[in-house]
Amino acid sequence: MKHVATTVAGSLPKPAWLAQTQKLWPEWQLDGAALAEGKRDATELAVAEQVRAGIDVVTDGEQSRRHFVHGFLESIDGIDFTKIVRKGIRADRYEADLPTITGPVRRSRSVHVAEARFARTLTDRKLKVTIPGPMTIVDTLHDVYYADRKKAAFAFADAIRAEIEELADAGVDIVQLDEPAFNVYFAELEEWGIDALNACVRGVACSSAVHVCYGYGIKANMDWKASLGGEWDQYGIVLPLLAQSSLDEISIELAGSRVPPDVLSGTGDKRVAVGVIDVATDDVETPDDVHATLETALRYIPAERLIASTNCGMAPMNREIANRKLRSLVEGARLTSFTA
Ligand code: ZN
Hints:
By secondary structure, the chain is an alpha/beta fold. The chain has helices at residues 32-53, 70-73, 113-120, 134-139, 149-169, 186-201, 219-226, 234-243, 287-298, 319-334; strands at 2-3, 5-6, 57-58, 77-89, 94-106, 126-132, 142-143, 174-178, 207-211, 249-253, 271-277, 306-310, 337-338.
């Protein structure tokens, strides 16, 4: 008997000695060489927690990034982090301080490759690295250079593809592109979003995934979710489009959401990482809760293509609660066995 495989969407909470806790854009608590060392130590802990919990496909917990989008952009040319503009993002759902694109976007050096190489030394398990997708990147920046979201997105896709090629060489098994913006901009998704996504993974030597979610458990997202009505039909549009993409895996949220589970039938022949852990509540799911969510997913997706995951990143969560949730995730997946 096999059990449903497990992973996490990406980030885990950072230790309090490394960064401010329970914040989306936390300040580092260290600097210089101490910060570099602290990031590595926190990565060891994040990987160890996942291995201890029994997660099959682990990440570095994004311990070296302040934010899942801006952490990637800090190493990309053409972006000025001193020109900060406060703007509404995700269709004005919330305001954020955004750096500005002031010149051609270029990846003149590696971004997360050294971090991935270090994480690779910590475990023999499958290693996943997350990178923001091109639409989510352009939605999290102010742009005075391209002044065209599609053009900017394809410039980022080139940078992302170069990064993924190096990550694959470093022994990363799967790269996941995070595209929460896909759940917001449906016209752009259809027009160029999938093409930009495909451009990121063209010819790369590792497996690929795309994560589309309803966001972290921050107040702006909770308010947005409350406004979406009794049935969240966004995936009904998004998943059939992703099913046509060239990526191998789709990561979505299901636990504690008002996502109608029959949207899962729109995932084509992709592997589907289904969120069985709600990151927007501190209530810890029981293994039986996790098992029940997986059983629901199994009505639409065969067990060999199903992966149990978290709904979204856990970066802004309480660390102990996040660890308890990881353990429930694995125990619930182990209750969900099948014969191959
Ligand atoms: Zn997410």
